[in-house]
Specification:
Layout lengths: L1 E9 L10 E6 L5 E6 L2 E6 L5 E5 L6 E6 L5 E6 L3 E6 L4 E6 L6 E4 L6 E4 L3 E5 L7 E4 L4 E6 L5 E6 L3 E6 L4 E6 L4 E6 L12 E5 L3 E5 L10 E2 L4 E6 L5 E6 L3 E6 L4 E7 L4 E6 L5 E6 L3 E8 L4 E4 L2 E6 L3 E6 L5 E5 L6 E5 L2 E6 L2 E7 L9 E7 L7 E4 L3 E6 L2 E6 L4 E6 L4 E8 L6 E6 L3 E6 L6 E5 L4 E6 L5 E6 L4 E5 L4 E6 L4 E4 L6 E6 L2 E6 L5 E4 L3 E6 L2 E6 L2 E6 L3 H9 L3 H10 L3 H13 L3 H11 L2 H14 L7 H14 L3 H10 L3 H10 L3 H20 L6 H6 L4 H9 L39 H9 L24 H15 L1
Helix pairs in contact: 1-2, 2-3, 3-4, 4-5, 5-6, 6-7, 7-8, 8-9, 8-13
């Protein structure tokens, strides 16, 4: 947490009146700030600090100002016993009087009712009524505050009493203290744990106390070393600020925990106000100074793999499992300065001690942390990391190793300022640290070794570091926004990419990393170009397909499918790496594409694994039959490959391609059977005609040549080989096949009811038996031979199922 001064102004004395700033109020939209100083009401531009109006309606010192919740008007009161109502254009509309000077004002946050306190009474006024309702009090009213629902009003009196009334002025509860109540305020937002209104009271006995509407004290009283003079809450209700006689403005949590001073002044601070829905605080002091501050709440967090711990509300630690999105809150009840997490350890630095927590079980998703140890020492450091038995403190060039007992065990003094430090694992009490220096050197330090090891020396300052999962590659982001990847064995630069502000290796794959920059996420795999997409924030972790991104103060888990990387490896026919990438996380359609690619390339084992992922029973059954027929063969023949591809095409519904593959495999009869079962009569006739012509040609062909005659024959080599193997020649327009099985019917009979195709040669025995039994052209399923044993319904149309049964039966043969 740090504070920046936005603007400041020094109000001069006028009309022989002190320029003390007694009160400050913001317009509800935060655009203007109203200040009571001297006998003037000053209106400033809240953003720039320009003085917009200087209003002279009062004849004496102005003690208080208040803005209505609706933002249409504001009020001022002072020593001249008058309350003036102003419009938001700084025009005086009306006024009313009291018998004593006006000490404080407060607008009801729900209605238009205005409360005004004096030395002898307090008044309630609203536009609907013509007169002011006044109620006597036992002592001077020093402070006023309404509950968020506008039902109760708290009055702080000079005699130390706190009176809690309803909106009509009837007292409902009273708290008695011994010293004047200079300031008080209701928290504008109810707490989730206890949804009751809480009143913070600043008393001149130098205490802060907390009460409910009933007057019951609800939180522990906090002792101060100064008189609290003003209190103001943030719009969220999480924090409030206190100005006092110590000349400071101090930030507090809603639970009454001091978070430290945010500003210092030259005199007592009489007035503070918080800009609505902002982290800006305006403060006015006794010497007439008005200052606007901006509080910057820095992110305090720690990350190890998928465990992320961060500070919330300045006093709590939230541990989040980034994969399961489970969260657990640890209430430290003190200002959290640093957080570190490593495996099952969590270290939290408080102002005067360091708390050590551990996970009770070995479950990697368990978040039930319990207190393990405490180091009761006050440390000053810029970075903190924790290991299994130590904490490491970083301060400029120095690293200090402390045991959980608090004993300093080792110290390293490095040659340059430390810019980055990370625990990269290792055995207990021997963990390694990765350290990046301002001079560009990257070191590895083991906690049990006094001597650092230099990994890489580069010329530019290190901004971010990460090691690959095998620890053979180092990724570095430097101050010039370049991402550089080094081989740690050769110390050589492998590649570099521009426009990076953070980098993280994938913890489940060696050659994959992600880096971010210019609102773009880049995923680089191997030597392929980076795959980019829009992303806001910084990449801080990468596990599988999940990328952990820090955006402002919140951590986001982004699920990025690895489809692009998988298809790149498929294009290279690197099926094993493609499968590993797919295991990181891809869509179901990507798994199917991978499985079919593997099957088409005869990678049966990978194809089976991929089909199991998507639970495709049809393909798994096909794979079972293919592996039974061809799985033991070291190398497939061309005909076997074509037969496998034909069945792959057929199961995908690519029947034309399947028929061509059947022809190339020497089994054109299967193409006829396929089209017949599908009732595609034209295609069946076409292929039957081809087979019939081929059969006639085969009858007219000369007898086979002897080996000597074949050697002397002028036939081309490929024709001789084809004749020797008994395989048919590829079909061509007008050409006749060289060899084909004989048929018992002509092509003109295909499609007639009861016509049967019965090839008798060149078929394996089960297929020949199936042909002998026959099937009608109307598509009756064979139950003998080819189809024997195939009784599974795969949820496809009946004709397609018969085609698959035929193919499977052929494989069984």
């Amino acid at each position: 947490m740090r504070t920046v001064t936005v603007w400041a102004d020094k109000i001069p004395e006028r009309d022989k009146l002190s320029s003390t700033v007694w009160s400050i109020a913001f317009k509800p939209d935060g655009t203007q700030v109203v200040v009571a100083a001297g006998n003037r009401v000053l209106v400033y531009d809240a953003q720039e600090g320009d003085l917009i109006h200087s209003l002279k309606g009062h004849k004496d010192a102005v003690y208080c100002v208040a803005y209505s919740k609706q933002g249409k008007k504001f009020a001022s009161g002072g020593a001249d016993k008058q309350v003036i109502i102003w419009t938001d254009k700084a025009e005086g509309r009306l006024k009313y009087h009291h018998t004593d000077s006006i000490q404080c004002l407060a607008y009801n946050p729900v209605t238009q009712q205005l409360a005004s306190g004096t030395a002898s009474d307090f008044g309630l006024w609203s536009p609907e009524q013509k007169s002011v309702t006044k109620h006597k009090v036992s002592s001077k009213v020093l402070s006023l505050s309404w509950t968020p629902d506008g039902l109760h009003l708290a009055l702080g009196l000079f005699n130390g009493h706190i009176s809690i009334t309803d909106k009509f002025g009837t007292e409902k509860a009273e708290v008695v203290r011994k010293e004047p109540i200079w300031c008080l305020g209701w928290n504008p937002v109810l707490a989730r744990s206890d949804p009751t209104d809480v009143l913070v009271v600043g008393c001149c006995d130098q205490t802060l106390s907390f009460y409910k509407v009933s007057g019951q004290e609800c939180l522990k009283e906090q002792k101060l070393d100064y008189d609290p003079l003003s209190i103001a809450f943030f719009s969220s209700g999480d924090y409030f600020v206190v100005g006092g006689s110590d000349k400071k403005v101090t930030l507090w949590s809603r639970d009454g925990i001091s978070l430290g001073p945010i500003s210092e002044h030259d005199d007592w601070v009489w007035a503070v106000a918080v800009r609505p829905k902002q982290h800006n605080v305006a403060a006015g002091s006794n010497d007439g100074a008005v200052k606007m501050y901006q509080i910057i709440f820095s992110t305090v967090h720690g990350l190890y793999q998928d465990r992320y711990a961060y500070r919330e509300l300045m006093t709590d630690v939230i541990v989040q499992h980034l994969v399961t999105d489970q969260k657990v809150r640890i209430r430290c009840k003190d200002y959290v300065k640093k957080i570190a997490v490593y495996r099952d350890r969590l270290a939290v630095q408080l102002p005067d001690k360091v708390l050590i927590y551990e996970v009770a079980q070995d479950d990697p998703t368990d978040l039930h942390y319990k207190s393990m140890d405490k180091i009761r020492q006050r440390f000053e450091c810029s970075l903190l990391v924790v290991t299994s038995h130590h904490i490491i403190l970083c301060q400029e060039r120095k690293l200090q190793l402390y045991a959980f007992s608090g004993q300093l065990e080792r110290e390293w003094n490095l040659e340059s300022l430390i810019r980055y430090i990370k625990v990269v694992g290792g055995p207990q009490k021997r963990e390694g640290l990765l350290v990046g220096l301002k001079n560009g050197h990257i070191l590895k330090i083991f906690v049990d070794n006094p001597f650092p090891v230099t990994l890489i020396k580069q010329a530019t300052t290190v901004r971010c570091l990460d090691l690959s999962v095998s620890r053979k590659k180092l990724a570095v982001v430097d101050e010039t926004a370049n991402m550089l990847v080094y081989d740690l064995d050769s110390k050589q630069l492998i590649y570099q990419e521009p426009n990076a502000n953070s980098v993280a290796w994938n913890t489940e794959m060696e050659d994959m990393l992600a880096y971010s920059g210019n609102n773009t996420l880049c995923i680089k795999t191997g030597t392929f170009p980076p795959h980019t997409q829009k992303l806001q924030g910084f990449v801080v972790g990468f596990k599988g397909s999940k990328i952990f991104c820090l955006h402002y103060v919140s951590m986001q888990t982004i699920d990025v499918p690895q489809s692009a990387s998988m298809f790149r490896y498929l294009d290279r026919k690197d099926f094993h790496t493609a499968y590993r990438v797919a295991c990181l996380g891809v869509t179901e359609s990507d798994w199917r594409a991978l499985a079919i690619n593997c099957l088409s390339s005869f990678q049966f084992d990978l194809a089976r694994k991929a089909f199991i992922r998507i639970r495709d029973v049809r393909y798994l059954d096909l794979l079972t039959r293919l592996q039974a027929s061809y799985g033991k063969k070291k190398q497939l023949t061309q005909e076997e490959e074509n037969m496998i591809l034909a069945q792959v095409h057929a199961i995908q519904g690519q029947y034309r391609e399947a028929a061509e593959r059947f022809l190339k495999s020497g089994q054109p009869k299967l193409a006829v059977d396929m089209f017949t079962d599908l009732r595609k009569w034209d295609e069946a006739k076409q292929w039957a005609a081809i087979i019939e012509k081929d059969a006639l040609t085969q009858k007219a062909a000369p007898p086979p040549l002897t080996a000597a005659a074949a050697a002397a024959s002028p036939l081309r080599t490929e024709e001789r080989e084809r004749e020797r193997d008994g395989a048919p020649a590829p079909p061509a327009p007008g050409a006749v096949l060289a060899a084909a099985p004989a048929l018992s019917v002509s092509a003109s009979d295909v499609g007639k009811q009861g016509a049967v195709l019965t090839p008798v040669a060149h078929l394996p025995p089960p297929a020949a038996a199936a042909a002998a039994v026959g099937t009608s052209a109307a598509g009756e399923c064979r139950q003998q031979g080819v189809d024997e044993g195939v009784q599974v319904d795969y949820g496809v149309p009946h004709a397609e199922q018969r085609v698959q049964q035929r193919l499977f039966g052929h494989l069984n043969g």
